[in-house]
Amino acid sequence: VVAELMESFTRVFVDSVSNTFYPVPQEAIGVGSAFEGWSPREQDVVYRVLVPLNPPLGHAFHLELNSAGQMAARTFCVRVELVCTCKREQLGEKLLCFLHHSRKKLRRKQKPSLLKTLCTGSYLDVEKTSHWFCQLVRCSWLHLPESYSWHLVFQPCSRSCQFRLSKGKKSLMVEMLFGVRHGDSDIFVVSQPTEAQKGGSSTFVSSQPAEADFTASTAWPETYAVAEAKFFRHVARQVPCESLHLKCLQVFTCILRGTGFSSSTWKTVVMHVLTTVPLSRWRRREFARRLWDIMAYLRRCLQLKRLEHFVLGNERLPAEIRLPPATQRVEPLNLFEHLARDPAAHREAMRAYGQLRFR
């Protein structure tokens, strides 16, 4: 339902921005546990989609790393640059060049540039863009065939577009994130921290630094959610039992909730095990063995005080997952580095693992 809805939205979005200088929404990408297939069932599932934004004509996007950002929770600014369109004008297009026409003529004959509408200074503003995007969704909804059978209610949010769809007893919660792609890779900067960055925090094991701050209106957090979703699709095409690895992940994130380990930690561990245990061995009759493989991998990581980021620096990623050149060359990032720095946290993690094993 959500996938079909996003296709309908995309068609209307393209028409809505065709004669403006607002960002151009592209085809939405489903990300997170709901689309990967392992959401804990007793939770209220949120269907998250990422809508890539392309620059409008006469504009270009440039990603600039915030120097304060750490590798696992980096934030970027999206600098908007005006580019020359004189050649298009010479070809007969009704487009004035923002760089080479007078301000007076531009004000009289052309709509304002993106710098004048959704930017703070030279940088794309998340909150301004979110307000515009939600208005775009609101206006587009009435033109969708789904509007005749579903009821849509918006939820307040300053950095994404959230709404609930309902039809009779059916109800769906949808969050539309928007972002900018790193070149032609599967890495994006997004309006709102994604599921792994926002939720599933643990008492002592976190895959994201606690001091990460995404509150600045021009700060766009980096996300690996699209790359991870592509990895799960890659695995699903090869494992004998399509959902066994997802059932394993559900066990640890749902049944074993409250054991001190975050859902993002379990997800990282399971993804690593999928690259170390041959995919041919993920059969239904081997369910218990794979659960113990996951436990054993976590134990080794805790003993070594090292859990490597799954995307950054991972040489075992499938070739179909595209990374920016700079990301390919980085050293694997240790998500358990804080356990090495804090002996008390490491003792607590080992104690929790013992309780988890018993449970």
Automatic annotation (TrEMBL):
Compartments it resides in: Membrane
Annotated signal peptide? none
Q: Which residues cross the membrane?
A: none
Zinc is among the record's keywords: no
Task: List the record's Gene Ontology CC terms alphabetically.
Answer: membrane
Main location class:
membrane
Its topology with respect to the membrane? Single-pass type I membrane protein
Keyword annotations from UniProtKB, A to Z: Membrane, Signal, Transmembrane, Transmembrane helix
Which residues are in the Mab-21-like HhH/H2TH-like domain? 261-310
Q: Fetch the InterPro entries from UniProt.
A: ITPRIP-like, Mab-21_HhH/H2TH-like, MAB21L/cGLR
Family label: Belongs to the ITPRIP family.
The protein's name? IPIL1 protein
